[in-house]
Model the fold of this input.
Amino acid sequence: MAGSFKWKTLLVGVSVMGVLVAGCSSNSNNGSNSNSGAKTNTPASTAPAENTAANAGATDPAGPKKGGTLTVGTFSDINTTNPIYVADTSSGDAAYFMYSNLLDYDKDGNIVAEPWSLLESLPEISEDSKTYTVKLKANAKWNDGQPVTADDIAFTFNTIKNPEAASPGISSYDKVDKVEVIDPQTAKITLKSVYAPFINVLVSSIVPSHVLKDIPLKELEKNAFGTDPAKAVTN
Done:
């Protein structure tokens, strides 16, 4: 009985010692790892301030170059690049690079005359909100070098609102009663009645009357002619 008790006591003692040894070993390893980590961590190298400043101010000495080729992929066929008939995203994306708008939206969604817009300023609107007088920039040109004129505005608007042209934009332009050419750079657009969203209609492109006016309406969709510097090679 006594022998059995001694063996049990001895086993318990060995077990306790094992636990203590394991604990010490674990703590020792943790401490070793911690110290090792502290020794191996080194600060990231940083470039000298003068080098950073020099790199930040570096520019391409050649600068932008005129010309080149821009390849744009679309998820569907481009049906037309004539803005009178554009009604799908792919066609619109292609036409975007060929035509300038009369007015444009700025980054905040406001309608403005940007440096690349065709109009030199926002339209002058009559007190009854039915007449919009617009003035083109003197330097606006088509890609054949001919100036963009008020005749082009009148031709575009009258074509779109003509039911025989079958333009998808007719629902916005049929609010227009008439377009008068005041001078080569000025057009007066009169609405049939007050139409508050009409200013948004001016965020659109026009087409050249001197190129397209003699083309039959049924063939007009397959003819396009952009504003400078875009050049339509094929349609």
Q: What stands out?
A: Helices lie at 2-40, 49-56, 89-96, 150-160, 170-173, 198-201, 209-212, 217-220. Residues 2-40 form the longest helix (39 residues). The chain is about 35% helix and 10% strand. The two ends are 109 Å apart (CA to CA).
